[in-house]
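Hi all, posting the design record for the shared folder.

TITLE: backbone redesign
STEP: 1 of 1
STRUCTURE INPUT:
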């Protein structure tokens, strides 16, 4: 397998793989700085320079140490060509950063004894065993969450077209989607190879729904978001239809950023929601990241240390855990946890240093290489401003 890029990115349809900017690669490797530390600026002013350099409409970033937000700022506009400024309370679509949230939700049920990491697809969906390809029956929840289940990297075209019609409740849409997946053989024998798959996380989310009797969205709202103090978190495009009350996503057309009006076409369908449809404020995302940092060292009121360690431990022979890439970094004092996400209209990145109790997040309402570089540089900026 090829050496993975320095920063993780989801595969289509939630996004493309983007290389890290050279400045950020150097920062992660040697703990350097992309800013001259002898010329400190207010974070908003410095972040505006990053936003302008990369030509993204809006950009937000936050750093947290322990339980305290050290710095946060949001600059730019909610919509290209508009005048509405982003605010620190605006909500950003986090794409595949949702994956670690779905895995964390699974850990909550595992601690309660309501599901096991070894629980299989066949056990959860016994009524589908007679029609599914036999290899699916033994696929475990852990294999799905570590991208080792053989789930397809790209959704089958007919299932993807049907998912966009969004007929029925989100739970019904997911069940129909995964039922279609089960009619096809896994792309690789389960447990044998890593293959990044949004479809695998859709199956995992459907398993949690069937086990609990509640929609994945309800489980997130009632269990995960309260635990991490994320009262503004939700799903899909963050803005209201017909309004510019939150950031709009953008598509690139002929080199230009074109705003995408809020609505069904402004996010991927709920069928793959557990893989990447959450939105939240930048400080809420930072609190979530810091919650994971604290949890690995001392546990939380919601999850024990052992559960966080399980979530943060890569599968054998790889560096991907459950919704996290795990990479050694000197600045982190050991392993860092990271992930990024894009629904092809927004871009978000998280970096966590559990050993130091630090977390850094950045988000923009644009896709593509420049969006990735803007978020990389925003996180590098935050790291460079920490007291030495």
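Okay, here is what came back for every position:
SEQUENCE:
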């Amino acid at each position: 397998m090829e050496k993975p890029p320095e920063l993780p990115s989801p595969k289509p349809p939630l996004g493309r793989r983007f290389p890290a900017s050279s400045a950020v690669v150097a920062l992660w490797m040697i703990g350097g700085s992309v800013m001259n530390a002898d010329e400190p600026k207010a974070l908003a002013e410095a972040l505006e320079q990053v936003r302008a350099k990369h030509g993204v409409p809006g950009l937000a970033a936050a750093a947290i140490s322990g339980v305290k937000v050290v710095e946060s700022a949001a600059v730019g506009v909610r919509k290209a060509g508009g005048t509405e400024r982003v605010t620190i309370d605006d909500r950003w679509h986090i794409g595949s950063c949702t994956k670690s949230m779905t895995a964390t939700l699974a850990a909550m049920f595992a601690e309660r004894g309501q599901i096991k990491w070894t629980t299989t697809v066949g056990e959860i969906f016994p009524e589908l065993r007679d029609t599914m390809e036999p290899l699916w029956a033994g696929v475990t929840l852990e294999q799905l969450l570590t991208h080792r289940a053989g789930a397809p990297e790209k959704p089958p075209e007919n299932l993807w077209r049907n998912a966009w019609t969004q007929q029925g409740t989100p739970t019904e849409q997911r069940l129909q989607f995964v039922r279609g997946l089960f009619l096809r053989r896994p792309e690789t024998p389960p447990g044998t190879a890593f293959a990044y798959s949004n479809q695998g996380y859709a199956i995992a989310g459907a398993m949690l729904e069937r086990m609990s009797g509640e929609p994945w969205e309800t489980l997130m709202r009632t269990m995960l978001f309260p635990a991490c103090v994320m009262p503004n978190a939700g799903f899909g495009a963050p803005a209201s239809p017909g309004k510019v009350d939150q950031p709009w996503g953008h598509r690139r057309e002929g080199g230009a950023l074109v705003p995408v009006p809020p609505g069904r076409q402004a996010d991927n369908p709920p069928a793959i929601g557990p893989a990447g449809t959450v939105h939240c404020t930048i400080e809420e995302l930072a609190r979530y990241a810091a919650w994971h940092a604290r949890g690995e060292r001392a546990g939380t009121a919601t999850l024990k240390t052992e559960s966080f360690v399980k979530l943060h431990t890569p599968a054998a022979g790889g560096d991907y855990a459950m919704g996290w890439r795990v990479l050694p970094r000197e600045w982190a004092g050991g392993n860092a946890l990271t992930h990024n996400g894009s629904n092809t209209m927004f871009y978000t990145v998280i970096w966590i240093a559990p050993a130091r109790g630090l977390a850094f997040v950045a988000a923009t309402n644009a896709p593509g290489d420049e969006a990735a570089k803007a978020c990389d540089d925003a996180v590098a900026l935050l790291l460079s401003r920490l007291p030495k």
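COMMENT: The first strand starts at residue 58 and ends at 65.
Let me know if anyone wants the other runs.
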